[in-house]
Design goal:
The protein is an alpha+beta fold. It has a domain of 119 residues. Helices cover 45% and strands 14% of the residues. It is built from 12 helices and 5 strands. Strands 1-3-2 form a 3-stranded antiparallel sheet. The chain has a two-stranded antiparallel sheet with strand order 4-5. The longest helix has 15 residues. The chain is globular and about 50 Å long.
Length: 243
């Protein structure tokens, strides 16, 4: 049972593909593997698995994001090239889409929160940093042109980026590189951490997506890997989780 951040990292590396919350593959989740009271640190002065995500992510031995049916989880660096190879083929990036715009911005910022993304894409006079501080003129022109192409109904709505962010993570083009926290004047941390988004190449290196297999071969490798780890689980369940 997971009872420390070191054990959380070890478990993620052992399984290679580890969702955080319970899913269609019974037993394969941090939630189900956490020691009693350790998922959110309910019965301990330590933070628990939910807050250990950040320290584990910073070790850069795993990738973390919404990789499993739009739910978060870990992928080991050993399996990540095949994971990216399959998912990028399964979830192609559409030209001139909001997803492409988000990636262009992140390439300039390296790490950014969804709140900052919203302000850059939809505009905000209260934003404390101007986009021109971090993007060049040509990039800004492209971003502006794409922003203007967004339908009026969408721009006047909730300005939600949740869908595009999920799609980019499921497609292996985006991950969570860390979490940003708020602090009191006394330096005490409070509230939930806010995800800092980056790309696999920016966070883990330019060659992280290099893979010599076809997407289909990569998918079969991932399925076989989990099937060997979970002999009592049917392959159909594993395939459903990984699609």
């Amino acid at each position: 049972m997971i009872s420390s951040k070191e054990h959380l990292e070890e478990t993620a590396l052992e399984y290679g593909l580890l969702p955080f919350f319970a899913n269609n593959v019974r037993g394969l989740s941090v939630q189900e593997m956490a020691a009693p009271g350790m998922l959110f640190g309910e019965t301990t002065d330590d933070y628990g698995c939910w807050e250990w995500k950040g320290p584990v992510i910073r070790q850069q031995t795993t990738a973390y994001g919404k990789f499993f049916r739009n739910k978060a989880g870990f992928v080991s660096l050993e399996l990540l090239p095949d994971f990216l190879n399959y998912r990028r083929a399964a979830y192609p990036l559409e030209p001139d889409s909001k997803e492409e715009m988000i990636l262009e911005i992140i390439e300039q910022y390296e790490k950014i929160t969804s709140t900052e993304l919203k302000r850059l894409i939809f505009g905000s006079t209260s934003y404390h940093r101007q986009a021109t501080d971090l993007v060049d003129i040509d990039a800004k022109r492209k971003i502006t042109a794409k922003k203007e192409s967004v339908p009026t109904k969408e721009k006047s709505g909730r300005h939600s980026l949740e869908g595009p962010l999920q799609k980019l993570q499921m497609g292996g083009r985006l991950l969570i590189a860390d979490f940003q926290y708020k602090y009191t004047k006394r330096g005490e941390r409070y509230g939930w951490g806010v995800a800092l988004y980056s790309t696999p190449q920016l966070w883990l290196g330019a060659n992280i997506s290099k893979c010599d297999r076809t997407p289909e071969e990569s998918f079969e490798l991932l399925v076989t890997h989990l099937a060997n780890k979970l002999p009592n689980i049917s392959e159909s369940q594993i395939r459903l989780l990984l699609k």
